[in-house]
């Protein structure tokens, strides 16, 4: 079966330390003012003393039907055969069409290069057999990445074991970040 | 999301529509009106290349990597309206300058024989309406493809087309009225004003249907349309577009058509009604471009 790279993010394990954002910025030289990944907060929910707050990390969803790729006028935005959505800088003219087309606001215009910028799933690290920077640094092990089509991967095992949700399902982009909100006491072994 | 496409894109959308509308006005006046409509055909041809040229300049300046713009013309991506749109506006703009040349007074036509040029004028006049419709409406498809609330309204290409025609006709009315040379005759203006009034009525209907469709759609969509009706864009929508851009010029045009305007007032009324149509057309592009970005799915 073909490789389909994606993430599982366990919101119950996220403490909003933002280390993933720092690691990504440092790993990928992301200019200040924009970020390739984020942690969103639900705000305080409920009434005192029963209050809660949920943190939802995110980044490019490496969608099955990425609108950023189909609208790109020069073919700079591409979906690789392993599912990773990338921008080929040489072809990008900075028209920002992909920024408007992404319903997750996962892209931004890089002020230094003038080109569309986004999460590459740390392609350069994967090629060296390393995890993406945000995954490696995540101290709560909230972020997991891997091949969603490989049943022995951590991400597949988590998806098999826990109920998941995806964001903006109705828009039809087929995002490849699966969110788990339940408590996950142990992260399964796997690739 | 923050604003990705700003005023430069709004101006491009407006100027491209204006040029396409002026071009069709000129083509149809020439093909169906002949000598009697010679002045408006001429002014349409003289006007058409310039607004879109300004718009194209702004488009390139808006790019993050402007010197890389040629990448657009190394490929044709059929899934991207911006890709085929770039080719369309390129051909339109080049041919619109050719068409302008064919309308120049003979003394300025240094290249080509008069008889041959006349033949080419007719050929171009038959081809350009198709290109103009493409220029005016592809921008609607372009926003459609980004699948955001408001931008994904299926009637958007039609709204942009009708608004483009309306602003194009209005611009021709205005310029052929302001010029001391080759000023439009009463009959020409009457037909153009009639056409513009019809287009404004059509535009009102399309806007109404878009709002009804949007409001009865998903919550995100409905919320986005609320931002026009009662939210952030309430003044732009009701005052600048509906009031000043549609209802008032429509009323003025209808009064003109019925001959209810005293003779000494006809000229200022004609100029102001066509100005208001242009004004409204600009804010239609503004509100769609901005409201589409400040609203998103939830």
TrEMBL record, chain A:
Highest rank taxon of the organism: Bacteria
Occurrences of domain 4Fe-4S ferredoxin-type (ranges): 5-35, 51-82, 83-112
What keywords does the record list, in alphabetical order?
Answer: 4Fe-4S, Iron, Iron-sulfur, Metal-binding
Write the signal peptide boundaries: none
Q: Which PROSITE patterns match?
A: 4FE4S_FER_1 (PS00198), 4FE4S_FER_2 (PS51379)
List the InterPro entries. Answer: 4Fe4S_Fe-S-bd, 4Fe4S_Fe_S_CS, ET_IronSulfur_Cluster-Binding
- UniProt protein name: 4Fe-4S dicluster domain-containing protein
């Amino acid at each position: 079966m073909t490789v389909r790279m994606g993430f599982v993010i366990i919101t119950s394990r996220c403490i909003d330390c933002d280390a993933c954002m720092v690691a990504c910025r440092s790993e990928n030289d992301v200019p200040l003012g924009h970020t390739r990944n984020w942690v969103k907060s639900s705000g305080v929910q409920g009434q005192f003393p029963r209050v809660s707050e949920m943190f939802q990390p995110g980044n490019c969803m490496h969608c099955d039907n990425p609108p950023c790729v189909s609208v790109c006028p020069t073919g700079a935005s591409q979906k690789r055969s392993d599912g990773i959505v990338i921008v080929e800088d040489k072809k990008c003219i900075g028209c920002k069409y992909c920024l408007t087309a992404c319903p997750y606001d996962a892209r931004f215009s890089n002020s230094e290069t003038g080109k569309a910028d986004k999460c590459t799933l740390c392609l350069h690290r994967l090629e060296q057999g390393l995890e993406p920077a945000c995954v490696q640094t995540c101290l709560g092990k909230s972020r997991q990445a891997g091949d969603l089509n490989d049943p022995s991967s951590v991400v597949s095992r988590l998806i098999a074991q826990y109920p998941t949700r995806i964001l903006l399902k109705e828009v039809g982009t087929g995002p490849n970040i699966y969110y788990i909100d339940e408590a996950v006491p142990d992260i399964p072994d796997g690739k | 999301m923050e604003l990705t496409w700003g005023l430069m894109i709004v101006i491009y959308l407006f100027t491209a529509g204006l040029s396409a509308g002026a071009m069709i006005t000129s083509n149809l006046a020439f093909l169906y009106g002949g000598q009697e409509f010679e002045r408006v055909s001429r002014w349409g041809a003289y006007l058409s290349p310039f607004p879109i040229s300004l718009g194209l300049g702004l488009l390139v300046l808006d790019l993050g990597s402007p010197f890389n713009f040629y990448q657009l013309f190394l490929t044709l991506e059929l899934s991207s309206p911006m890709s085929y749109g770039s080719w369309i506006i390129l051909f339109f703009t080049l041919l619109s300058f050719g068409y302008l040349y064919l309308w120049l007074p003979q003394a300025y036509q240094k290249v080509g024989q008069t008889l041959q040029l006349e033949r080419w004028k007719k050929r171009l006049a038959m081809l350009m309406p198709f290109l103009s419709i493409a220029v005016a409406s592809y921008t609607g498809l372009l926003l459609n493809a980004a699948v955001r609330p408001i931008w994904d309204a299926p009637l958007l290409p039609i709204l942009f087309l009708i608004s483009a025609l309306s602003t194009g006709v209005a611009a021709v009315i205005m310029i052929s009225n302001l010029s001391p040379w080759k000023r439009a005759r009463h009959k020409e203006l009457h037909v153009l004003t009639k056409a513009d009034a019809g287009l404004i009525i059509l535009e009102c209907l399309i806007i109404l249907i878009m709002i009804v469709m949007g409001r009865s759609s998903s919550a995100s969509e409905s919320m986005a349309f609320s931002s026009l009706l009662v939210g952030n864009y309430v003044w732009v929508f009701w005052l600048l577009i509906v009031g000043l851009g549609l209802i008032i010029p429509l009323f003025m045009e209808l009064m003109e058509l019925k001959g209810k305007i005293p003779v000494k007032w006809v000229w200022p009324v004609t100029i102001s009604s066509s100005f208001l149509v242009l004004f409204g057309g600009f804010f239609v592009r503004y509100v769609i471009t901005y409201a589409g970005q400040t609203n998103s799915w939830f």
